[in-house]
Amino acid sequence: MVLGRGLLGLRSVSALGAACARRGLGPALLGVLLHHTDCRKSSTMDQGTLRVELLPALTDNYMYLIIDGETKEAAIVDPVQPQKVVETVRKHGVKLTTVLTTHHHWDHAGGNEKLVKLEPGLKVCGGDDRIGALTHKVTHLSTLQVGSLNVKCLSTPCHTSGHICYFVSKPGSSEPPAVFTGDTLFVAGCGKFYEGTADEMYKALLEILGRLPPDTRVYCGHEYTINNLKFARHVEPNNTAIQEKLAWAKEVEKEFSGGVNTGGSRECSKTPSLFSPQGEDQRLATSLHLDLPPDPYLASHQQLKDHLLPPLVTFGGGTGTLGSEGPACGC
Question: Active site includes 104?
């Protein structure tokens, strides 16, 4: 976005949102700045009874409309742009009953209050009292129903202390389930540790999300794929799998007008944050005089990414960063 990144000199629209929040300007002003900035296309992933409409929002966010094909009941994940949600609900002719909020950051929960005004009676779910318009606070392994679909809440604290991922399945069906990971897991990356530790992120990725069925489709909260893979390539320049995945991501981005998140199988094997601090990344950390804990190894990658962001990548007219975001969100 030219206005957010160039004229205002901020790293991203997420940083712009955080700056607005600190000054008490709220999302209304930001909405003016973001008008017509998102050119990514929406798309529908049909998994049988479970249908998922991917709705690009802001500049790199995703909202998701979850539709039960049997009952035509629907839930929305992180509706930061509520008018877009309402228009999509009407297009599909479904009944929106539930809001699934992954965490309280404005770019995920900032549309809740407006949405409940547009669609009165919604059940607004989340794991944090800081979430706007919250009506149903959930905890780890809480369950919800959206029509015939089962929603299991998975507590994944770290990015924020109250972060929840939502695992959606059709009981008794062979249809692949889906998980909506917010800012915990991205394609080829994970969220920043704003309110947690590397130990907590390790548990979230390996012990909670990593134990979901292998055919689970992943729907993450941001489009950071290419930036994450560029960081991975920098850390492991000789890793051919990363090079191949980056080439694939660039092709998909062209085809889908800037969106790589295709709801494919889990990407843990492509996530550099899950790698052990050995080889290239360990040597790089040593040269930068970073103190790395012996275990878990997630902390080392987060330190490396934070330390190396500014000079690593250039975009078109100027220098960019590798997916780093302001205080509101990020990978």
Answer: no
